[in-house]
Amino acid sequence: MSVRALLPDAATPLSHESAAAAFADILDGRTGEEEVATFLVTLAEREETAIEIAEAARALRARLIPIAAPPGAIDVCGTGGDGHHTLNVSTAVSLVVAAAGVPVAKHGNRAASSKAGAADTLEALGLDMAVAGALAEQTLADLGICFLFAGNHHPAMKRIQPIRQRIGRRTIFNLMGPLANPAHVTRQLLGIARPDFAPVYAAALDSLGAEGAAIVSGEEGLDELSGAGPSVVLTVGDVSLAPTIVPEDAGLVRAPLAEIRGGDPAFNALALRRLLKGDRNAYREAVLLNAAAAFVIAGRVESLEDGAALGAETIDRGDAEALLDRWIAYA
């Protein structure tokens, strides 16, 4: 099929209209691969604007395969690419939060820059990803959790993946993915690995109509709240969190990032299973800190301390592990 050269000059910030048209053309295959690659690299080199990120996300949202979600469902995810190769914090947080009664529509993928993404680790734990994907809407309704494997819900991205792999660097597609949850959640705990870029990302999310969300970034360039030190926090909607959060705000203890360094899917799966069985270590502290923020975003608690306490109770009662086992056995 012939293609047309439709993309604008990405060296200059795009308007709402030009960005919307550009991403529609990219996702619908009306542009050549080389043109798309040049466009994406140029955007990344001058840094994407909030308008461009929002319009890219709108274009992807308009082409996704959706699922229904119960009221109050949230997502907990990061943009990835922080280079710290930590254990799967957001995956564990999703289990803890869902086990406490907050529905979690977990949007994720396999590893791109790390050794074990959310899908890889859940699969190593025994979750059949094909079944989990096919029954996502059902498990969300019945168990309060699902995994929305990006490849199952974003067919428009199939053409883009080889282009991204050939580019071999972060592009706007790393940023827009977490903003296009197939369950159309309006509450999110969203991690980004670039503290300085958090205001741009928050502005994009705000323009997309989030009811309540927080963009968080560990000051060491971590795409989640850091258990090692301060994190930058920007809120959207009706969420009340301080602009800087440290573990002590949730009654937790700091630990070096090296103590939660991950490995391959089997390594991360074992660590997650031991966490749910009650291991008390730096991984638990990091999970409780992020779960506390998720509980605040969901309106379940008013403070980080209360959220961390709720997360700890949920783990220690065995509720989070029981949920994982029911999810694995679900068929």
TrEMBL record:
<dbReference type="GO" id="GO:0004048">
    <property type="term" value="F:anthranilate phosphoribosyltransferase activity"/>
</dbReference>
<keyword id="KW-0328">Glycosyltransferase</keyword>
<comment type="similarity">
    <text>Belongs to the anthranilate phosphoribosyltransferase family.</text>
</comment>
<feature type="domain" description="Glycosyl transferase family 3 N-terminal">
    <location>
        <begin position="13"/>
        <end position="63"/>
    </location>
</feature>
<feature type="binding site">
    <location>
        <position position="223"/>
    </location>
    <ligand>
        <name>Mg(2+) 2</name>
    </ligand>
</feature>
<feature type="binding site">
    <location>
        <position position="78"/>
    </location>
    <ligand>
        <name>anthranilate 1</name>
    </ligand>
</feature>
<dbReference type="Pfam" id="PF02885">
    <property type="entry name" value="Glycos_trans_3N"/>
</dbReference>
<comment type="pathway">
    <text>Amino-acid biosynthesis; L-tryptophan biosynthesis; L-tryptophan from chorismate: step 2/5.</text>
</comment>
<feature type="binding site">
    <location>
        <position position="224"/>
    </location>
    <ligand>
        <name>Mg(2+) 2</name>
    </ligand>
</feature>
<feature type="binding site">
    <location>
        <position position="78"/>
    </location>
    <ligand>
        <name>5-phospho-alpha-D-ribose 1-diphosphate</name>
    </ligand>
</feature>
<keyword id="KW-0822">Tryptophan biosynthesis</keyword>
<feature type="binding site">
    <location>
        <begin position="106"/>
        <end position="114"/>
    </location>
    <ligand>
        <name>5-phospho-alpha-D-ribose 1-diphosphate</name>
    </ligand>
</feature>
<keyword id="KW-0808">Transferase</keyword>
<feature type="binding site">
    <location>
        <position position="86"/>
    </location>
    <ligand>
        <name>5-phospho-alpha-D-ribose 1-diphosphate</name>
    </ligand>
</feature>
<dbReference type="GO" id="GO:0005829">
    <property type="term" value="C:cytosol"/>
</dbReference>
<dbReference type="GO" id="GO:0000162">
    <property type="term" value="P:L-tryptophan biosynthetic process"/>
</dbReference>
<comment type="function">
    <text>Catalyzes the transfer of the phosphoribosyl group of 5-phosphorylribose-1-pyrophosphate (PRPP) to anthranilate to yield N-(5'-phosphoribosyl)-anthranilate (PRA).</text>
</comment>
<keyword id="KW-0057">Aromatic amino acid biosynthesis</keyword>
<keyword id="KW-0028">Amino-acid biosynthesis</keyword>
<dbReference type="GO" id="GO:0000287">
    <property type="term" value="F:magnesium ion binding"/>
</dbReference>
<keyword id="KW-0479">Metal-binding</keyword>
<feature type="binding site">
    <location>
        <position position="224"/>
    </location>
    <ligand>
        <name>Mg(2+) 1</name>
    </ligand>
</feature>
<dbReference type="InterPro" id="IPR035902">
    <property type="entry name" value="Nuc_phospho_transferase"/>
</dbReference>
<comment type="similarity">
    <text>In the C-terminal section; belongs to the anthranilate phosphoribosyltransferase family.</text>
</comment>
<feature type="binding site">
    <location>
        <begin position="88"/>
        <end position="91"/>
    </location>
    <ligand>
        <name>5-phospho-alpha-D-ribose 1-diphosphate</name>
    </ligand>
</feature>
<comment type="subunit">
    <text>Homodimer.</text>
</comment>
<dbReference type="InterPro" id="IPR036320">
    <property type="entry name" value="Glycosyl_Trfase_fam3_N_dom_sf"/>
</dbReference>
<dbReference type="InterPro" id="IPR017459">
    <property type="entry name" value="Glycosyl_Trfase_fam3_N_dom"/>
</dbReference>
<feature type="binding site">
    <location>
        <position position="90"/>
    </location>
    <ligand>
        <name>Mg(2+) 1</name>
    </ligand>
</feature>
<protein>
    <recommendedName>
        <fullName>Anthranilate phosphoribosyltransferase</fullName>
        <ecNumber>2.4.2.18</ecNumber>
    </recommendedName>
</protein>
<feature type="domain" description="Glycosyl transferase family 3">
    <location>
        <begin position="73"/>
        <end position="320"/>
    </location>
</feature>
<dbReference type="InterPro" id="IPR000312">
    <property type="entry name" value="Glycosyl_Trfase_fam3"/>
</dbReference>
<feature type="binding site">
    <location>
        <position position="118"/>
    </location>
    <ligand>
        <name>5-phospho-alpha-D-ribose 1-diphosphate</name>
    </ligand>
</feature>
<feature type="binding site">
    <location>
        <position position="109"/>
    </location>
    <ligand>
        <name>anthranilate 1</name>
    </ligand>
</feature>
<dbReference type="InterPro" id="IPR005940">
    <property type="entry name" value="Anthranilate_Pribosyl_Tfrase"/>
</dbReference>
<keyword id="KW-0460">Magnesium</keyword>
<feature type="binding site">
    <location>
        <position position="164"/>
    </location>
    <ligand>
        <name>anthranilate 2</name>
    </ligand>
</feature>
<dbReference type="Pfam" id="PF00591">
    <property type="entry name" value="Glycos_transf_3"/>
</dbReference>
<feature type="binding site">
    <location>
        <begin position="81"/>
        <end position="82"/>
    </location>
    <ligand>
        <name>5-phospho-alpha-D-ribose 1-diphosphate</name>
    </ligand>
</feature>
